[in-house]
Structures are given as C-alpha cells and as structure tokens.
Amino acid sequence: MEPPKDKEEALAGLLNGTVITLLGGALPTLFVWMIVKNWQQIMADVLHFSGLLSAPAALIGSFYMLRYGLRMLRLNWMSLRTL
Known about the structure:
There is one protein chain. The chain is mostly helical. It has four helices and no strands. The longest helix has 31 residues, at 7-37.
C-alpha cells in the first residue's frame, strides 16, 4: 500500500478503509446470528451444518479485513494530515 498523492486520494482511501473495516466487523456478527437462529438444527446435526464448518475460515478472513482496513485508515489519515 502506497501513500496517496493528494487530498482527494486520501479521502477516498479513508472511505474505502472505513467500508472494509465495517465489513470485517460485520462478518463475525453474521455467523453469530446464524448460530443463534439455527441453534436447534445445529445441536441436532452438528456435522452436517455447513455454515458451522466454514466459520473459522470466515473469522480469520474478517480478522485480516479488519487489520487491512485499520492500516488503510491509519495510512490515509496520516497522509491527509501532512498534505
């Protein structure tokens, strides 16, 4: 990731970083909601519930999205302050 060259790029980077961070935070919430909503079905047949098997990969992906979004916010905010 390279720093932005002007204020318009820095502001666009702030917007993009905000959206990526929010999406990364919403993904674990979606899985928690799915587990709460389908609790009876999960307890009845744990091995055949495909959403539960993909949850660890989605949580790791959301961690990377949060990390990337926060790095993007920090880089663009610092660049905006110096421009």
